[in-house]
Write a structure and sequence with these properties.
The structure holds three protein chains of three kinds. Chain A is built from ten helices and ten strands. By secondary structure, chain A is an alpha/beta fold. In chain A, the strands form two sheets. In chain A, strands 6-7-8-3-9-10 form a six-stranded mixed sheet, sandwiched between helices. A four-stranded antiparallel sheet of chain A has the order 2-1-4-5, covered by helices on one side. Chain A is globular, with a radius of gyration of 18 Å. The chains are: A alpha/beta, B mainly alpha, C mainly alpha.
């Protein structure tokens, strides 16, 4: 395995409540890793620790190490802003920037980081929208408002926006849970395509989805990593009793 | 008469009274609008807008100098008050977890409730007593009146921007301050502009602080350290004068003032309602 | 997927960026927060300066008259140069009280009309109109007061009032149209938009469960409304005090109709009188010597103090009630 993210003894708190307990795992480069588990057991908190978004909540705290390309993103002196340019995120509910056109949405990350050359931005916007399987649907009117798109299109817009800044890792927090089955299918296809050049970590409570698209799966239960391994193994022959019960739908 | 009938009568009576109250409140509004239109009708002409204040006894004349003076004074006040109000509003909305913000918000509310004449004397004591009656002193007073309004409307506008928008920007690797200045402010633009317009409308109508910091001026603008003519103050001075042509000008000025102030208020409602 | 042009190279090399950062770097976020905090803190400076300048400006008067200023009843700038503000304080409070007596019931009526009686679709338009009242500048109220209200009262209302109740001293005496009662009426009109708006908010946030409980008991609309008002009781008190604060601070409209006559007590409701704000507006520009100016600033200081007390009181009461009613509504 070529390790992209090496998570070592990760703990996280909201105030005095501990949400993640001593999680250690290695995430493979250019593969899709699914984080599964019942609701409210820390899956979202987990991935938000991977791009240092957890700590922006007042009262939130993190301990442990997350090595990205060998470098601990939590070490002193690291500016979280730079981390997030390499590790991008797509949220559960599509959140395109209101009042901005499709073009401006995708270009936002680039423009705000100082890229001025219109030709470069044009190319990046086109490329990102193509990667997100949205280009054909919007190419005729990029100036339309981002909010005028359907839910599934908006989410793909957010994916394009995240891809525009060329992250190496893409974190996805239940990206399809608010969408209809057709949009979901489209996004699942594009995730498999993206995994050729990006490391994807996706939180999902839809086990069929996890089985369909992921290479590795991590089962989180109340903040603890119960089991982690190749998806086929987790789903067909889980080692842990708890994992087995979750997979077979006894709870969750 | 049984109890039930009594209650029904009382209910009907109260219903009448309640609607009567509504009527009583709206009568002055319509009366004011009507009278201002009616009594200013004769004085509105091109001259009204381009000629300055006439001297006593002179026929004709207009309020051109008052329009000029008000524009300059309100403009200067906005230059001071709007940036301070904006930044304060941003602070209260984006950093509301800070201990400082509770105190700031409280004192902004306090300032909002202080009579404008008191703010006028404050400016009088601080500036007019040294520099003399001047546009600067008046603009200073008006700016202070403006600040709590702009702060509050900015804060509310920014609070309406959902967290998801901010998180989306932060997840792109954009630092928090840039997020606030570009994406958040951009999303709240309409509401913020509305708030600024409303505050401008409010201070355009203020005459008490202008009276004690600048006094009445009947000529053109001649320097920031000297007074200038003012629309709202003119309504007072002309309206309480014994000269008929000045009284007519008072009604004309009132009309212009009313149009501006009510026009902006209506515009503001339309702008903010369009968002829902 | 083609390779993007090299202009993106600054995005890569996270490692180089990490190592390059020195420990105590002043980040953009800290600078921005500091700048915002500085601007926001200007409020403390403004209020502090205000108190300072007003105290400094009134110092001469404070030194000369001390506490006698508040209870003094003589205002003689011309001859004896003695100043006392009691009649002004009384004038302010009495006219404001009249404004409340007239304005509060009407505000209650409007608030109930908008929250309990009127169908929603008219509600917006009507409350919009009431809000327009709040936007009308004070001088225009004054102008309308002089040329429309005063003649109207003088010719059509006061004479009847006097013929009916003239045996009472407050309704006796010569009628010229302006004066204490007229001032109170104008102030009432001016505070109604604010007070009714606050009340309407309060009534709207009373949980529907309360109304439904009354209706289920067979109550009439009026009886249900009384429950709503009673529920929001302390908020209503707060709204009234808020209205009082606004009335106390009103300047131009009142000075244009009240007659501006300095006297310890008016002979009747139709007599002219004076208020703190009116005397400042009228006489500050005429004040030719230091003690005169200082006395006027002193009046302003007293006015500031009174309005601060009123406003802080009102806000505390209204806030607490809004939070209470909303808290119960969530259950």
């Amino acid at each position: 395995m070529v390790v992209k993210l090496d998570i070592q003894n990760l703990n996280a708190w909201f105030g005095s409540k501990q949400v993640l307990k001593n999680i250690s795992m290695k995430i493979e480069e250019n593969a899709v890793t699914a984080i599964i588990g019942p609701s409210g057991c820390g899956k979202t908190t987990f991935i938000r620790c991977l791009n240092r978004m957890h700590e922006i909540t007042p009262g939130a705290r993190v301990s442990g190490k997350v090595l990205f390309n060998g470098m601990d993103i939590y070490s002193d002196g690291v500016d979280p802003v730079t981390v997030r340019k390499k590790i991008g995120m797509v949220f559960q509910k599509p959140n395109p920037f209101p009042m901005m056109s499709i073009y401006d949405n995708v270009a936002a990350g680039l423009k705000l980081n100082g890229v001025r050359d219109k030709k470069i931005i044009d190319m990046a916007v086109k490329r990102s929208l193509e990667l997100a399987y949205l280009w054909d649907e919007v190419k005729d009117d990029l100036n339309k408002s981002g909010a005028s798109l359907s839910g599934g299109q908006q989410q793909r817009l957010c994916i394009a926006r995240a891809l525009a800044v060329e992250p190496e890792v893409l974190l996805m927090d239940e990206p399809c849970s608010a969408l209809d089955p057709i949009s979901t299918a489209k996004i699942e296809t594009l995730i498999r395509k993206l995994a050729e050049d990006h490391t994807i970590v996706i939180v999902t409570h839809n086990m069929q989805q996890a089985a369909r698209i992921s290479d590795y799966a991590a089962f989180l239960y109340f903040g603890e990593l119960i089991e982690y391994g190749p998806t086929k193994q987790i789903f067909n022959s889980p080692e842990h009793e708890l994992t087995k019960r979750y997979i077979t739908g006894e709870f969750g | 008469m049984d109890r039930y009938k009594l209650r029904v009568i009382k209910d009907r009576l109260m219903k009448v009274l309640v609607y009567l109250a509504l009527f009583l409140a709206l009568v002055p509004l319509f009366s004011i609008l009507f009278e201002v239109f009616r009594r200013s009708f004769s004085v509105i002409s091109l001259d009204f807008f381009i000629r300055p204040t006439p001297t006593v006894g002179e026929v004709g004349g207009g309020i051109a100098n008052a329009i000029q003076g008000t524009l300059i004074t309100v403009g200067l006040a906005s230059l001071i008050g709007v940036p301070i109000g904006l930044m304060s509003g941003i602070f209260l909305s984006e950093y509301s977890e800070s201990k400082l913000s509770a105190a700031v918000r409280f004192f902004h509310d306090v300032l909002n409730g202080i009579p404008s004449i008191v703010i006028g004397i404050f400016a009088y004591a601080m500036i007019t007593l040294s520099i003399g009656f001047s546009v600067i002193a008046a603009a200073f007073a008006l700016a202070i009146i403006m600040i709590p309004i702009v702060t509050r409307t900015t804060e509310e506008a920014l609070k309406l921007v959902p967290i998801s928008v901010r998180e989306a920007a932060i997840a792109l690797g954009i630092p928090r301050w840039k997020t606030t200045l570009t994406v958040v402010l951009g999303s709240a633009k309409k509401a913020i502009v509305t708030g600024v317009l409303l505050s401008i409308a409010r201070i355009s109508g203020e005459s008490a602080p202008v009276l004690v910091t600048m006094g009445f001026w009947r000529w053109w603008f001649s320097g920031l350290n000297r007074p200038a003519a003012n629309l709202a103050l003119n309504v007072f001075v002309f309206g309480t004068s014994p000269f008929e042509n000045w009284v007519a000008l008072a009604w004309g000025s009132a009309l212009l003032l009313l149009m501006i102030v009510l026009g902006i208020s209506v515009l503001a409602r339309i702008l903010t309602r369009g968002r829902y | 997927m083609q390779n993007p042009p090299r202009a993106f190279s600054f995005f890569h090399n996270l490692k180089a960026k990490i190592v390059a950062l020195p420990r105590m770097r002043l980040k953009g976020d800290d600078v921005f927060k500091l700048v915002c905090a500085l601007f926001a803190s200007s409020i403390f400076m403004i209020l502090g300066l205000m108190v300072y300048e007003l105290v400094r400006g009134s110092w001469l008067s404070i030194r000369t008259f001390g506490l006698n200023f508040i209870v003094g009843t003589k205002w003689d700038p011309a001859i004896s140069r003695v100043f006392g503000a009691l009649p002004l304080i009384l004038g302010t409070l009495v006219t404001s009280a009249i404004a409340l007596v007239i304005g509060v019931p009407i505000s209650l009526g409007i608030a109930l009309a908008l929250s309990e009686y009127m169908p929603k679709k008219f509600g917006f338009g009507v409350s919009f109109l009431v809000e327009l009242l709040a936007a009308v500048p004070s001088v225009i109220y004054g102008l309308w007061g002089i040329f429309v209200l005063i003649p109207f009262l003088r010719n059509h209302v006061y004479p009847h009032l006097q013929s009916a109740f003239g045996f009472l001293p407050i309704f006796s005496g010569p009628i010229y149209g302006g004066g204490v009662l007229t001032g109170g009426i104008v102030l009432a009109i001016m505070i109604i938009p604010t007070v009714s708006a606050v009340m309407r908010d309060l009534f709207s946030s009373v949980p529907n469960s309360q109304r439904e409980a009354m209706i289920a008991l067979g109550a009439t609309k009026w009886e249900t409304s009384k429950t709503v008002v009673s529920y929001a009781r302390s908020g209503v008190v707060g709204a009234i005090i808020l209205g009082l604060g606004r009335a106390v601070g009103e300047t131009m409209a009142i000075t244009m109709v009240i007659g501006n006559k300095f006297q310890v007590w008016p002979s009747s409701l139709f007599d002219a009188w004076y208020t703190m704000s009116a005397i400042i507006a009228n006489e500050l520009l005429e004040a030719t010597y230091d003690l005169y100016v200082s006395a006027l600033i002193h009046v302003g200081l007293v006015l500031l103090f009174i309005s601060l007390v009123i406003n802080i009181l009102a806000r505390l009461i209204v806030w607490r009630t809004l939070r209470l009613t909303r808290g119960i509504a969530r259950e």
